[in-house]
Amino acid sequence: MSGATEGLDGKVAIVTGASRGIGAAVARRLAGAGVALGLASRSGDDLGIGGAVSMSTDVRDPAQVQALVAATIEAHGRLDIVVASAGVGAYGPFLELDPEQLELMIDVNLKGVLYTARATLAHLVAGGGGDFVSLASVAGVNAFPGEAVYNASKFGQVGFVRSLDIELREHGVRCSNICPGGVATDFAIGTGRTADMPELAQMMSADDVAEVVMFALTRPRSMRLMTTTFRPMGEASWG
Predict the structure, then answer these.
(1) CATH number of the structural domain spanning residue 81
(2) Residue 110 DSSP symbol
(3) HEC assignment per residue over 84-98
């Protein structure tokens, strides 16, 4: 994409869920564009990105999120971009869903984004503006059988960020939901997906989704993308 990294060099970003999948792909793209990084993941992996602040961070714990934000700002001086990418999924009939999986999806997918926003948005406002990007899902705008709780977590995530867009636009903060369809990562492997399922071959890659994140981040400051949905060509559309 021509010009896709213009205007990002020298900025500072935090990415959650950064050790693998979409989060890792986004982090690498940002680093390649000259963005200094704070990387939050359960493993604390720095992805080999020089100068990145990386901490083992469970987004279900507000104190851990706050610590990562503080360390990033101490190292890099400010904060311009937040990409909330941490997420989990479990698929199957609601009445058969393990209660622990129910709690995990709500805590990571919804409350984790709330805690990330709470820890970061004041810094974006104080800096005169920035971007808060939430990696949601088409499951945040359409309902699917076998995904009731995942739907609930993602509908909540999308609604929350839509409200932030209204609240923070006047402060120069753009709040965007990025809502992909099927992505071929290890997401939900063992909790509704299997590594050998043929559908994975038709799904998008994590890099495909990172490209859309970069597109949102590099739009002129005079415009914003609120909710962007997209799907692989081999996946049917609903809703």
Answers:
(1) 3.40.50.720
(2) I
(3) ECCCCCCCCCHHHCC
Per-residue pLDDT of the chain (239 residues; tens, 9 = 90+): 444 455 899 999 999 999 999 999 999 999 999 999 999 999 999 999 999 999 999 999 999 999 999 999 999 999 999 999 999 988 899 999 999 999 999 999 999 999 999 999 999 999 999 999 999 999 999 999 999 999 999 999 999 999 999 999 999 999 999 999 888 766 545 455 556 656 656 678 999 999 999 999 999 999 999 999 998 877 777 65
Asked whether residue 237 is assigned to any structural domain, the reply reads no
Q: Considering 91, 150, 155, 160, which one is annotated as catalytic?
A: 150
- Find how far residue 41's CA is from the centre of its chain: 12
Contact of 109 with 154, CB cutoff 8 Å: yes
Structural domain including 153 reads 12-230
Q: Is 150 a catalytic residue?
A: yes
Under 8 Å CB-to-CB from 175, ≥6 apart: which residues? 131, 132, 134, 161, 162, 164, 165, 168, 169, 224, 226
List Cα–Cα distances, 65 to 48, 131, 140, in angstroms.
21, 18, 23
Residue at token pair 């903060």:
173
Q: In total, how many domains does the chain have?
A: 1
* 115-139 per-residue burial string, b: 16 or more CB within 10 A, e: under 16: bbbebbbebbeebeebbbbbbbbbb
